[in-house]
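Dear colleague,

Thank you for sharing your sequence with our group. We've completed the structure prediction you requested, and as agreed, I am returning the results in plain text so they can be pasted directly into your records. Please verify that the sequence below matches your submission; if there's any discrepancy, let me know and we will rerun it promptly.
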Amino acid sequence: NLEQESSTPEYVPIDDIITYVGEGLDEDLMVFTAPVSGIYAFHATSIANGNGAVPLLLYLDDDEIATSARRDQGSFGVYPLGTLHVSLAVQSGDVVSLKVRGSRSFFGSLYSPSDVTFTGYLVIGWD
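Please find the predicted structure tokens below.
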């Protein structure tokens, strides 16, 4: 086994917010709390920093909803790309977050993404 995933996913730090319209984003924690119930679309992409595959994990509250990368031996490469896109029925007050579970190779280097984009928007809301 050349790789071992860390047990606790960590929030993906966002250094630069290009566009933010609306409400619900906690810029300190980088989590989104839905201000209204409805269908939301979320999209994330990542490119690894040269140390191998790193899955981005999309969470709804405490549940892992989607991942951007495979977790099998065939997913390894120098600069693998990952993407995910989901549409979710979300209730007002639900929390959506993007996390990463880093890995350590047997060489000891931490795998982490270097470029991440994360987009979310309300498709249709309801009361």
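Summary note from our side: The CA atoms of residues 38 and 126 lie 5 Å apart.

Kind regards,
the structure core
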